[in-house]
Amino acid sequence: MGNYVGRRVFLNINRPDPELVEQFRGFPSSNIGDVMERLYCTGSEIKPLNDAPLLGVAFTVKCPSGDNMMFHRAMDLAKPGDVLVVDGRGGMERALAGEIMMRYCISRGFAGVVVEGCMRDSDAVREMDFPVYCKGITPQGPYKNGPGEINVPVCVGGQVIRPGDILVGDRDGIVVIRPEDAPEILKEVRKKFASEEKTISDYTAGRVNYEKHEELYRGKMEQADFLYIEEGDR
Q1: In angstroms, rounded to a whole number, what is the distance separating the alpha carbons of residues 194 and 118?
Q2: Are 32 and 172 in contact (CB under 8 A)?
Q3: For the stretch 126-149, what's the b/e string if a residue is b when 16 or more beta carbons lie within 10 angstroms of its beta carbon?
Q4: How far apart are the C-alpha atoms of 75 and 173, rounded to whole Å?
Q5: 40-69: string of b/e by CB count within 10 Å (b at 16+)?
Q6: What is the pTM of this model?
Q7: For residue 233, what pLDDT band results from cuts at 50, 70 and 90?
């Protein structure tokens, strides 16, 4: 068969039940990240270009820095509800997409685009009701030569993202959920969200338990054997 590493397209991926994916809508990425032990959020270098919330299933693309041929090919292979996740190796010299490609993605019913690299036409993208995340902005356009691969594990914002993973994003960033973990994560994030909403409501209404807060963090410092020093003791 020969060596096709770097020139492979995997057509079939295991997508989770759309009803399961939809149940994550509206939960903050921070709440989901917290119940996953704060290990599965993308790094701060991956930023949203607009306010459109992200929720969908990863359809991954691996391409060389500054080359978007496989990005274009993926736009014809992905399905509605997919998020195109493009690992452009963090290249900052050339944009991998802009307004025209995003409008093509919208017409195809995709759930969003995430790029480990640069975008352009940022003014237009900021006005779209279509979530787009990227590492940077430059007007410089890409090459279209390849190579690349589609639907292999990729790395974006320090996170390994596999085809079929559930992605939830907001202005804070993106959290990556493995489908096999999703049912349990959903239970936990519902509890977390309800608890935080109650706390916010209490604080807003002036119902603040200062003693409980002080006791918690004083206890943590005592366990870690901190030393308190009066100003005159220096």
Answers
A1: 37
A2: no
A3: eebebbbbbbbbbeeebeeeeebb
A4: 23
A5: bbbeeebbbbbebbbbbbbbbbbbbbbbbb
A6: 0.94
A7: low
